[in-house]
From TrEMBL:
SUPFAM superfamilies recorded: Multidrug resistance efflux transporter EmrE
The protein's name in its UniProt record: DMT family transporter
PANTHER family registered for this protein in UniProt: EAMA DOMAIN-CONTAINING PROTEIN (PTHR32322:SF2), INNER MEMBRANE TRANSPORTER (PTHR32322)
Family membership: Belongs to the EamA transporter family.
Keywords, comma-separated and alphabetical: Membrane, Transmembrane, Transmembrane helix
């Protein structure tokens, strides 16, 4: 059962990442963030009301959820932008690295945990993969430095968000309340940034206006809801079996994103970039399994 739900998490996260990146080629990244997270807010709000999760609210949960919500839009903005301008087969595995590496580092600093040999090896493998994925030393044009920078910022943001969510609550209902508060803050922060950019003269919508949002609304909603569903399936996987197994299998979602990019966009990577993306993913799995 753990493996089934963890693999479902990989599928949902992978498709959500691909959808967000694809939509960011047509809409502004901030618009994608605000609308997709707004859809997630509606569903999570219903879940919180239905489960009575409000009883879990305390100062620790609130502060951690608000912090995660403030970081989230920056991370997603950088991630969707990187997916829009760079190869998804490189961006997704590298971004995944931070969602594992940062929680490991937090565990070392706050909880006195010490990495094992497998995690040390995973770090070295992952760093090597990041360098190769950028196209360093290979023929042809490397991935733009801007894409790598955006991806690294997103990676650390995702890791910080996951750490804050993990620190917020230890129960499933508390998790859903944390995710709801986080998404509300996501929408507030992202919406504020979108309004500020509009006031500076940057249009929020492409040339076709609201029609572009309405025609892509089902896809935007899917991105937000798939992310919420992935959080739910991961919680079930972690509750029903070894957390290590759940973390490792759930961390395979960049494979789904890369396969979707290959099948839909006909995206092709150079051999060195493919090897680098694979090493980044392998390093992530080693970190999670250590």
């Amino acid at each position: 059962m753990t493996a089934v739900f963890a693999l479902a998490t990989s599928l949902l996260w992978g498709l959500a990442d691909f959808g967000g990146g694809l939509l960011s080629k047509r809409l502004r990244e901030l618009t994608v963030v605000v609308v997709s997270q707004g859809a997630a807010c509606l569903v999570l709000g219903a879940i919180v009301l239905g489960t009575g999760a409000w009883s879990e609210l305390d100062a620790r949960l609130l502060w951690c959820a608000v912090g995660a919500g403030a970081i989230g839009p920056v991370s997603m903005l950088c991630f969707y932008r990187a997916l829009a301008i760079g190869p998804m087969g490189v961006v997704s595995p590298v971004a995944t690295l931070g969602s594992v590496a940062v929680p490991v580092a937090v565990g070392m600093v706050l909880h006195g945990e010490r990495p094992g040999l497998v995690q040390v090896a995973g770090t070295l493998v992952a760093v090597t993969g990041v360098v190769l994925a950028g196209g360093v030393g290979g023929g042809g044009a490397p991935v733009q430095q801007r894409t790598i920078l955006l991806t690294v910022i997103a990676a650390f943001g995702f890791g910080a968000t996951m750490s804050l969510v993990a620190e917020a609550s230890t129960t499933v209902t508390g998790l859903f309340l944390t995710l709801f508060v986080q998404r509300v803050v996501n929408v507030i922060v992202g919406g504020g940034a979108l309004c500020a950019s509009v006031l500076r003269g940057t249009p929020a919508l492409p040339g076709e206006g609201m029609r572009a949002v309405w025609t892509t609304l089902p896809a935007l909603a899917f991105v937000g809801l798939a992310d919420v569903a992935a959080n739910g399936t991961y919680a079930v996987a972690a509750q029903s079996g070894p957390v290590t197994v759940a973390a490792v299998l759930a961390s395979l979602y960049p494979v789904v994103t890369a396969l979707a990019a290959r099948g839909v966009l006909q995206e092709r990577l150079r051999a060195m970039q493919t090897a680098g993306a694979g090493l980044a993913l392998l390093g992530t799995v080693l970190l999670a399994s250590g």
